[in-house]
Amino acid sequence: MIYDLIVIGAGSGGVRAARIASVHGAKVAIVENNKYGGTCVNVGCVPKKLYYYISQFNKDIKNYESYGWKIQNSSLNWSSFVKKKDKEITRLNSIYENILSNNKIKIIGIRHGEKDHETLISKEEMPRSKEEKKFYRIFPDNRDLNYEKFIGKGN
User: Fold this and answer.
1) Which end of the chain has less Cβ packing within 10 Å, N or C?
2) H helix or E strand, kind and range, residue 2
């Protein structure tokens, strides 16, 4: 399959880039081997805010009591909180997945039936310069993808 755009990562930015390109007529694929929504939704902003809210509850009770409320025997059921937090993150993951599906964006990753690292971008199809107007090609392959060789080690 030949795509006009392949996005690596289905976080907020990746999903938006894929959606905008698709809306403008591009044939788009997105590669994600984890949960949709990226760091913010799954392990950053969203869970952090939920943890913060529960951490402030006792402080809030004291404030409410200064206005006349009588709140007794408050306690936190940690396992219920964790289940509710996970349910909210799953709900947000589904929203991102629906955005991709509704915009006819091909989702590539282990959550969609492929084996881990099975889908590769052919080196032969990679543009060699900005002027070269080739499309990327995605195809299945049983070799493991060496990420360091493919995208560099980074810092």
Assistant:
1) C
2) strand 2-3
pLDDT in tens, 80-94: 999 999 999 999 999
Q: Which pTM value belongs to this model?
A: 0.69
List the alpha helices (DSSP H) in 3-125: 12-23, 38-42, 45-55, 57-65, 78-102
Of residues 128 and 60, more confidently modeled: 60
Structure tokens at 85: 């937090």
Angle (CA) 130-135-138 rounded to 5° is 130
| DSSP characters over 124-145 | GGS-SSSS--PPEEEEE-SSPP
Would you say 141 and 120 are in contact if contact means Cβ atoms under 8 Å apart? yes
Region 23-36: what's the mean pLDDT?
90
Residue 33, amino acid: N
Q: Can you read off the two tokens belonging to residue 130?
A: 């900005």
104: which 2 tokens? Answer: 């006819």
Query: What residues pair up with 142 in beta bridges, in sequence order?
Result: none
